Amino acid sequence: MRRILRIIQRLFTSRALDESIKRNLKEIFPKGYDYRQFKVLQKDEILFSMVNFTPIIEWFMEKVIQPTGILEIGMEQGIFTSKLLELARKHKVPYYGIDPNIGESIKKEVPSGHLFEDISLRAIPRMLQAYPPYEFNIVFIDGDHNYYTVNRELDLLLQKFHKQSTPFVIFLHDVTWPNAFRDSYYNPETVPQKHRKRLLENGFINIESKEPDYTGKGLASGGGMFYASKEGGEKNGILPAVMDNLQKYSKEMELIFIIVPAVFGLGIITSLKRLNKRQREQLLYFTKSLKIFFPLLWTLEYNRLMVYGRYRKSIWELIQKDKSLK
Ligand SMILES: C[S@@+](CC[C@H](N)C(=O)[O-])C[C@H]1O[C@@H](n2cnc3c(N)ncnc32)[C@H](O)[C@@H]1O
Questions:
Q1: Ligand 1 pocket test target in 142, 175, 260 with most atoms within 8 Å of CB
Q2: DSSP 74-136
Q3: Does the beta carbon of 79 sit less than 6 angstroms from any atom of ligand 1?
Q4: For position 84, what pLDDT does the model report?
């Protein structure tokens, strides 16, 4: 009798297992087994937009911190802005955007009082001094990627959140290569000269070396975007700006800092003190899962930037050859 029961039990268990595997595959391939159905959020030559972190950001807004308002610093063509507007509508909260150059299409979509066409270090103080106050608890920092700017952006925002007892989260872009330990400047003039690093003029930087490159390998410096000629050292790049602010505000707010090492690195700063038990558990689940995938993500990121650097070099060589033929 017991043997028969065991056989029946085994039969049911394996059927349940079968079902769960099928369900799992169905979740991954809802419209049949075809890779092309995966949603690609950005289709440029190299992924750079924060839009690629959408699944993480949506999960955060659902499970950890309910938005009361969203602030985006650094909007560029608005590819991520459109997604944030969608999320703001879904959660019925306002969206605010800061950028010295805001695209015309975004201006049509967002009420003009919610857009600040200026550099962040002028726009944030204006927002914080306004009455009635602008309400937001989710911030995306992706403007000018240098110590001077990010250190001050974080200081202003953490000062604001320090005065409140409600949950908040700051997402920062570019916390891994190339900006982790190297400043870059969209418009060097907006950073006072004594806080500016020596610029790399007409050179390249690549992930395979700390030294500047002049053979076309990697990302170009000069023209529209300048990198500091040296990586590392004091007050150079985004991570030192994060660390200085964590040191300043951590004790009071129990801040935690998480790095997702993909698409130039996503940093997440939040205060454990502002979260309830359930929210903390969700955050713990996130960090534990990330820990498992961290080495793989970093390897993929290193690989894509190495391959991209070498690809840019081959393009650059073709251009030089073409020039020498003329
Ligand atoms: C990397 S892009 C932003 C990309 C966008 N967040 C995305 O994920 O698709 C950086 C943007 O920051 C803007 N920017 C540059 N300096 C800034 C500053 N000091 N304050 C605010 N925005 C700045 C630039 O005009 C540019 O549009």
A1: 142
A2: --TTSHHHHHHHHHHHHHT--EEEE-SS--HHHHHHS-GGGEE-S-HHHHHHHHHH-SSPPP-
A3: yes
A4: 98
DSSP label at residue 143: S
The domain in which residue 54 lies consists of 50-182+234-325
Q: Check residue 218 and give left, alpha or beta (phi > 0: left; psi -120 to 50: alpha).
A: left
* Token representation of residue 43: 């289709």
- CA 30, distance to chain mean position in Å, is 28
Q: What is the pLDDT of residue 183?
A: 98
Q: What is the mean pLDDT of the chain?
A: 95
**Position 24 in a domain:** no
3-class SS at 284?
A: helix
Task: Please name which of 207, 239, 212, 244 lies closest in space to residue 228, comparing C-alpha atoms.
Answer: 212
Ligand 1 pocket member 148 (CB < 6 A): no
User: Which residue, by CA, sits nearest to atom 18 of ligand 1?
Assistant: 119
Looking at residue 141, which CATH number applies to its domain? Answer: 3.40.50.150
Would residue 163 count as lying in a domain? Answer: yes
CA pair distance 29, 171, nearest whole angstrom: 30
> What is this structure's pTM?
0.94
Ligand 1: residue whose CA is nearest its atom 7: 49
Asked whether residue 1 is domain-assigned, the answer is no
How many domains are contained in the chain? 1
Residue 207 lies in a domain: no
CA–centroid distance, 27 to ligand 1, in Å, is 35
